[in-house]
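Quick one, tokens below:
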């Protein structure tokens, strides 16, 4: 389950399938009320890492809510399936993904940093 932050300096970061059409639509369902919602995302996509980053802009998301979701790219290809739990904010940064080409070659659990190979 991914974490999603409503406020703060945190950027929501999801790892997705690679795509050549980096415009994204998120389809999600509140697991308590079963209400379905569709929303376009204004996101930054890093193709070399297959990472999508976006600010807190999912409409209707409430603190403590849990959602089942999938994401499609601009070509209507499925690029992510999963669930996420909403938090108001976090005192820690969200997961930071680093390339194996970075100088630091070890994962650091205490700072929530992971090396991708």
């Amino acid at each position: 389950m991914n974490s999603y932050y409503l406020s703060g300096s945190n950027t929501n970061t999801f790892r997705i399938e690679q795509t050549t059409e980096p415009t994204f639509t998120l389809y999600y369902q509140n697991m308590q009320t079963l209400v379905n919602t569709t929303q376009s995302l204004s996101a930054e996509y890093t193709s070399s890492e297959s990472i999508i980053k976006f600010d807190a802009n999912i409409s209707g998301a409430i603190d403590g809510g849990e959602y089942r979701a999938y994401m499609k790219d601009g070509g209507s290809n499925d690029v992510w399936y999963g669930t996420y739990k909403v938090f108001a904010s976090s005192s820690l940064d969200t997961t930071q993904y680093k390339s194996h080409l970075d100088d630091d070659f070890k994962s650091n659990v205490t700072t929530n940093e992971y090396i991708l190979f």
